[in-house]
Structure formats: C-alpha cells, structure tokens
Amino acid sequence: MNVAYVNPFLSATIELFERTFGISPQPGEAFLDERARKHRWDISAVMVLTGSAIGIVAIRLTRLLADKLLVKSGVQWASEEERESLCDGMVGEMVNIISGNASGQLTDYDIEISVPIVIQGENHTISWPERAPIIGVPFSTDIGPFMVDISLIELPKAYRKN
Predict the structure, then answer these.
(1) When comparing pLDDT for 9 and 3, which is higher?
(2) Which terminus of the chain has a lower count of CB atoms within 10 Å, N or C?
(3) What values do phi and psi take at 100, rounded to 5?
C-alpha cells in the first residue's frame, strides 16, 4: 500500500484532534486488521476513494470517546436527544474536515474522495474491498482510543482515467 495515499489521512486526523480538541493522539504500530464481524467500534466515519487508487478509509471510535469529544468541544445541550444529535453531527463534521484536509495533500495524485458517511451501531459492517488488505493504525489519547483503517488498491496506469 502506497504511503503517499495513506499519510495524508493520518496527518489530517492528528491535526484535527490537536486543533479542535487540544488532544495529541499517539499512533501505535500499524497492523493487518481482520474483516471481523465483531469489533469494539460503535462509530465508523467512512471515506471512499476513487481515481489512481480505490478503496476505503475509516475513522473508527467508541461512543464513549465521541461523547468525551463533544464535551471537550464546549457545545451545550438541553436534552439527551439533543446530545445524541450533536454528537452525530460532530462526528460527521470531523470526517468532513479530515477528508478535506487529506484531499488537499493528495493534489499530486488522481484521487477523489466521496462525501463521507457515518455508520453507527454495535458490530456495524463496512464493505471493504475484497482484494485489498485492511491496515489498522491504532491511536491512543488521554480520553480513549480510536482507529484509522485503510484498505486501498492502486490501479495500474492502464485503468486510470487520463
């Protein structure tokens, strides 16, 4: 997997946490993630890539971490329903910012990033590309862990649009 496609997402994620929440996430050792049906993540913010590489980048976190990030943002809410709505919106905005900042670092490559989506629920499923490995990069913070999962296939030049 070409790190030129991966690093912009990792650096955009770190930058978002630092600037928005004042948190310095520490990356762990990258590993080959499994296509497991059971996992610990309650929320996955998913970006689909097309162009010279195709695949998925997902920012994955627990509901507890998302709730703590909402508190750190300083946003106030009046009801549990409003808190849940604000938390959902915050995660959506986070992935939009990561996507925008990463795409700015990919201008030398023919890569387009779809409008990101947020998937929620216990053991939710992402349809990962079958022919590409999923590389997991775990992050730790003072308020909880999260993961960046990346699964990309670089297309041969003959299959790229010119």
Answers:
(1) 9
(2) C
(3) -65, -45
